[in-house]
Design brief:
Blueprint (H helix, E strand, L loop, with lengths): L8 H14 L3 H13 L16 H13 L6 H11 L7 H14 L8 H11 L5 H15 L3 H14 L8 H14 L4 H8 L19 H13 L5 H13 L1 E2 L2 E2 L10 H24 L1
Antiparallel strand pairs: 1-2
């Protein structure tokens, strides 16, 4: 069972992706590895949709390498990340990506202080929604295994009084549900709202009012529902069919009609698949 509270969240994500990768046949696995290799820039970083090295896409590329056990090209990737460690011009999401990558890639002895992490997310990331800020901080703090008790104490207070307005997209509702579960607050109301994004016969939509499902919403919703002990068996077949339909020559598509192949949606496709596979295995163990 992957959802071990002692395993950092980012490693749980990688393990679910690995489970999704391992359930595929050898030919499909090889296609994904080849696609992953084509997405690495000559400077070592992984590329965005425009073919430019990008820290956000690099975290997906790096985690896919770990999940697929294809780490042969990581020497140049280490050089790329080393050049980005002290880059103060990058945005808060990219800074947190560097910290997460650095934690696994170099395993530094010294961790970033809680104050410096809060400064990045709340100082530079003023436009980032609160529940997503919490998710970013949780990934990094869990990865570093420091300040957990202090952080979760204050996070519990923030989230208790946090009342988001408007119609949240599925990804943010997923982050909020996960956040409340992580700090020990009641999350059942948010969990039920998250289910409302599901469309029978397909998967999860970015908003309950839209027609098309997408891989990102499906993956994050399934991961959070799995983490909050929701029984996924009734929706497993539909979601697997949706995931399979959006596989294309070594990569996964967004699912909303965009035919562009990239690392982000490939990661989410395998995450969704792995979450469902793990759920099925746990269900079999329980019967």
């Amino acid at each position: 069972m992957i959802s071990d509270q002692n395993i950092p969240v980012y490693k749980q994500l990688i393990q679910y992706v690995e489970a999704g990768f391992n359930v595929l046949d050898e030919e499909t696995q090889q296609q994904i590895i080849i696609f992953l290799e084509t997405q690495q820039h000559k400077n070592g970083g992984f590329t965005d949709r425009g073919g430019n090295p990008d820290l956000y896409y690099s975290i997906f590329g790096f985690w896919l390498c770990l999940a697929g056990n294809c780490t042969g090209h990581l020497d140049s990737f280490k050089s790329y990340i080393t050049t980005q460690k002290d880059n103060q011009k990058i945005g808060p999401v990219e800074q947190m990506a560097v910290i997460l990558i650095d934690t696994e890639l170099f395993k530094p002895q010294k961790s970033r202080s809680l104050f410096s992490l809060l400064k990045v997310v709340f100082g530079k990331g003023k436009r980032i929604e609160l529940s997503y800020k919490f998710f970013l901080l949780t990934l990094v703090i869990d990865a570093q295994n420091r300040y957990n008790k202090v952080y979760y104490f204050f996070a519990r207070i923030w989230l208790y009084f946090y009342k988001p307005k408007g119609n949240l997209p599925c990804s943010l509702m997923s982050a909020l549900t996960f956040a409340k579960k992580k700090v020990g607050l009641n999350f059942k109301k948010e969990q039920q709202k998250l289910i409302s994004y599901y469309k029978e016969g397909v998967g999860f939509r970015s908003f309950a009012s839209v027609t098309n499902s997408d891989i990102l919403s499906t993956a994050v919703a399934l991961f959070v529902l799995r983490q909050t002990n929701y029984d996924l068996r009734l929706i497993t077949v539909d979601c697997i069919n949706f995931i399979q339909h959006n596989y294309s020559s070594g990569a996964f598509l967004s699912g909303d009609g965009d035919e562009t192949r990239d690392l982000e949606y490939t990661f989410y496709g395998l995450l969704a698949l792995g979450t469902l596979i793990e759920n099925g295995e746990d269900s079999e163990k329980q019967t």
